[in-house]
Amino acid sequence: MDDRSKKRLKDTKVGKWLRETSPKVLDLVGHLLPDKGVLGVVKNMVDKDPEITHDQKMDLERLMEQEKTKRWESDNQSDSWLAKHTRPLIVLSLVGVLFIFIILDSLDIAFDVRESWVSLYEVLILTAVGGYFTLRSVFDKRNNRP
Length: 146
Description:
It contains seven helices and no strands. It has 146 residues and is mainly alpha-helical.
């Protein structure tokens, strides 16, 4: 585990932003590790804070994306096969399941999926595929690959 994964939220760029913009949120979550789902909680808290302007919220969004990219780059540089391949395998499995759904739907058999599962799947595939290919393009640009 590298030093970055041990940093508390208060020690990151997002923590610095919170210290200047919303210290009460930092007091609540600053001691937590950013890779344990804390960034989503912070974003929800900031979104509901009427004292934070839209521009400040957009700055937070940008910082959170930078932190996520750092974690993904760290995974790609890891010596662990699983760390390097987890995201591609997730994307591959989500796309594979999508093809299965498409085939089952085209066979004209009694096959029905509840709307709640469709909505969840839509969010998962958009997040995973969009995030994976965005990360790949950023990673390739930083490493001077076409």
